[in-house]
Design goal:
The protein has 441 residues and is α/β, with parallel strands linked by helices. The strands form 4 sheets. It has a 7-stranded mixed sheet with strand order 4-12-11-10-7-5-6, with helices on both faces. It has 2 domains: 129 residues, Aspartate Aminotransferase, domain 1 (Alpha-Beta Complex), CATH 3.90.1150; 273 residues, 3-Layer(aba) Sandwich (Aspartate Aminotransferase, domain 2), CATH 3.40.640.10. It contains 15 helices and 16 strands. The radius of gyration is 22 Å and the shape is globular. The protein is 39% helix and 15% strand. Bound molecules: pyridoxal-5'-phosphate. The site of pyridoxal-5'-phosphate (PLP) has 15 residues, from helix 6.
Length: 441
């Protein structure tokens, strides 16, 4: 009863994200009411459960209602919930900034705070542009992104997002950015490795920079995995070459690690696998453990120095009401504590291998292509002309107690880092079963 009641009220009063609401009016795409969460599981009011195979849009790292994060949040709640960050400061925001800087080996020692990923993208773009203006290069005001890139959906972030479904409807509002080819490893021609594809894409980047560098402020990339366009994976060689080219042509490199940061790809930051440092690093999603909206843009001493001046107008003039929110920062600190205490990255190596093993039987499936993995992200593409496949798969997975939302014909898993062997087996069986059901429709 409570399931049905909440569902009806939600359909009336809540405008759900990334959704054609009319589809929810039919039984074809039911809205799922959730009463509570525990670990990798989400429960409705009737005791039905779903394994959160996508970490609730890639944000959850250590399970729902994690006791350790809950305790930290409770303690913070009794101390200070929030205070203006202009002219004031507090313990959680200072500690978090210091610890994040330390995680970059001190290379990115200045943290700017916002509440969501798209805002972090906009902050990095504005900072880059303003850096060049402060340095006497006001002509550098364009941005470059990869084909298939996703950096958020506010008007500024959408300009560097190359996903047609999100971008086309609002194209007239955007100050469009140029795109260069993605180093998508699936583009390998006969005999080519992923590294060869990366070099080919970097050559295209070089040609673009040669022509346009005078007007370019920054190149923005999602290191190693372009998640939103379908878990597009690529070789770290591309990041190495892109870093060298950006240095040569005096263009900033922005690493958007909103999705791939916080251990998702196997290292704490994805860019570590290329042994490079960006000029700007964007974090959000997992950084607060999946608890509270928080985003951060880290930048270098060189960037910071360009704004440090007597003139107010040369400062970075940007703010959000909840900038540096103490509760959100405290959950982020609790999240980093779990990384430090539990050897998470080390344990995830084995976990990721087990996840891959649970999908391995699909490698021989006649309609499965490009079964791939980077750290705790696993994906494969399904060859089918059925436009309803993603929805069919999603429903078939729900019927098998698993939350898995394909992106187009790409099925992926991105579970919380606490998933057990039993739960991995559950997820693997749900994927195999849902695939058969969705394809036999
Ligand atoms: C999710 C995401 C964003 C946007 O973050 P929001 O909090 O949804 O605004 C930006 N970049 C990447 C790579 C993302 O995955």
């Amino acid at each position: 009863m409570r399931n049905a009641d909440l569902l009806q009220r939600s359909l009336k009063a809540v405008w759900h994200p990334c959704t054609q609401m009319k589809q929810h009016a039919s039984a074809d795409l039911p809205l799922i009411p959730i009463a509570r969460g525990e670990g990798v599981w989400l429960y409705d009011f009737d005791g039905r459960r779903y394994l959160d195979g996508i970490s609730s849009w890639w944000v959850n790292l250590f399970g729902h209602c994690n006791p350790r994060i809950n305790a930290a949040l409770r303690e913070q709640l009794e101390t200070l919930e929030h205070v203006i960050l202009a002219g004031f400061t507090q313990q959680p925001v200072v500690e978090l900034s210091e610890r994040l800087a330390a995680l970059t080996g001190g290379a990115l020692g200045h943290c700017f705070y916002a509440s969501d990923g798209a805002s972090a993208t906009e902050i990095a773009l504005k900072m880059s542009f303003h850096f060049w203006r402060n340095r006497g290069r006001p002509g550098k005001q364009d941005f470059l992104c990869l084909s298939g890139s996703y950096h958020g959906e506010t008007v500024g972030a959408l300009a560097v997002t190359d996903v047609a479904l999100f971008r086309d409807a609002y194209a007239p509002l955007l100050r469009s950015a140029a795109t260069v080819p993605s180093p998508d490893a699936r583009e390998a021609r006969d005999g080519e490795t992923a590294t060869d594809v990366a070099r080919r894409a970097a050559a295209a980047l070089e040609r673009h920079l040669e022509q346009h560098h005078a007007h370019l402020a920054a190149l923005i990339v999602e290191p190693l995995v372009q998640c939103a366009s379908g878990m597009v994976m690529y070789d770290p060689e591309y990041l190495r070459l892109a870093r060298a080219l950006c240095d040569r042509f005096e263009v900033h490199l922005i690493c958007d690690e909103i999705a791939v940061g916080c251990g998702r790809t196997g290292t704490f930051f994805a860019h570590e696998q290329a042994a490079i440092r960006p000029d700007f690093l964007c974090l959000s999603k997992g950084i607060s453990g999946g608890y509270l909206p928080l985003s951060i843009v880290l930048s270098t001493d060189a960037v910071y120095a360009a704004f440090y001046d007597d003139a107010t107008a040369r400062g970075f003039l940007h703010s959000h009401s909840y900038t540096g929110n103490a509760l959100a920062c405290r959950t982020a600190l609790a999240t980093l504590d779990i990384f430090a205490a539990n050897e998470v990255l080390e344990r995830n190596k084995l976990r990721a291998v087990k996840l891959a093993a649970s999908l391995a039987p699909l490698a021989g499936h006649a309609q499965v292509r490009h079964l791939r993995r980077r750290g705790m992200i696993l994906a494969f593409d399904v060859e089918t002309a059925d436009a309803a496949f993603p929805r069919r798969f999603y429903r078939a997975a729900l019927a098998r107690e698993a939350l898995i939302r394909p992106i187009g014909n790409t099925v992926y898993l991105m579970p919380p880092y606490i998933i057990s062997d039993e739960e991995i087996a559950h997820l693997g069986q749900a994927v195999a079963g849902a695939l058969e059901e969705a394809l036999s429709a």
